[in-house]
Amino acid sequence: MKSTIFDECFKHYKENFKIGENWHTLSEKFSYSSAEALRSDFRRERKKRGIKKDEITLVAPVQKTNHNAKILLFDIETTPILAFTWGLWEQNISTQAIVQDWHLLSWSAKWIFSDEIMSMALTSEEAKKHDDKRILSGMWKLLNEADIVIGHNCDNFDTKKLNTRFLIHGMLPTRPFQSIDTLKVAKLHFAFSSNKLDFINESLGLPQKEDTDLQLWIDCYNGDPDALKRMESYNRNDVDILEDNYLKVRPYIKGHPNLNLWNEENISVCPNCGSEKIVWGGKYYTYTGYYQAFTCSQCGAHGRDRKLDTPKEKRKTIVR
């Protein structure tokens, strides 16, 4: 981000915090695709410059968001399975060959738009004993608070892995939450050559993963304290770049948890980002009728009214 753009955005940020009136105007002025895209770019530049949110003196009071949903981004790292094997290719490894099953190494999480990244990793002694109960308790508490969770492959990996360890340690399930799996979003709406988070972010010009190799996981398995610190850092960065990815693809997400449900005011807001800056216009056609359509001027998502706009007489003539 150019310094001239950053300076103007920073002035606006101090005066209006995150959801001031001028983000949309500024995005048009600086040729950004949406107000959300500009805010995300500004946030990355602010963090790159080492300016923390809690160090900024706001000129105006913090404005409330348009919804009260608690949205948690999270990621976990696990150990590999240690097993005996007689070969390297197309092996059918039985459960009797397992020497040590997988367990949690670390987790990292952050609330949407917060600068604070929370994380926990095993101590050296815990890693050697393969005891992940302490750090599981920390992750359980966050998931139990969340209304919506976001992860890359979280539906098939992170959440199921956590539930498995919760069950093994005799922990009850967390309260229900809705999930947004950015891997499913990538597969459903795009055709990237790879759906790995790192590749997608590289393609979109977003921050990427820290460099690692298998040796890091082996060293963590053996309880190397420096390796465990590196793993926690790697995990924290994954959550940070996940937020960039989510905000970039959010306008495309169909079936996004509807943030109107967490909006306490009697107004319509964008179901994807919670902004009340929705512009009505045009028709949204389905197989048997049409509705009033809208576009969110903050994140760029499209949607429709709940009430059918097709005239009653016209509806009588529609066949299937």
Structural write-up:
The protein has 320 residues and is α+β, with helices and mostly antiparallel strands. The protein folds into three domains: 3-55; 71-252, Ribonuclease H-like superfamily/Ribonuclease H (Nucleotidyltransferase, domain 5), CATH 3.30.420.10; 266-317, no CATH class. The chain is 38% helix and 17% strand. The chain contains eleven helices and ten strands. A five-stranded mixed β-sheet has the order 5-4-1-6-7, sandwiched between helices. Strands 8-9-10 form a three-stranded antiparallel β-sheet, with no helix packed on it. The protein is globular. Mean pLDDT is 90; it is low at 60-65.
Through-space gap between termini:
52 Å
At CATH's second level, what is the architecture of the largest domain? 2-Layer Sandwich
Report on the biggest sheet: 5 strands, mixed
Whole-number total of structural domains? 3
Order of helices and strands: HHHEEEEEHHEHEHHHHEEEH
**What proportion strand?**
15-25%
Shape label: globular
Q: In the CATH scheme, what's the topology name of the largest domain?
A: Nucleotidyltransferase, domain 5
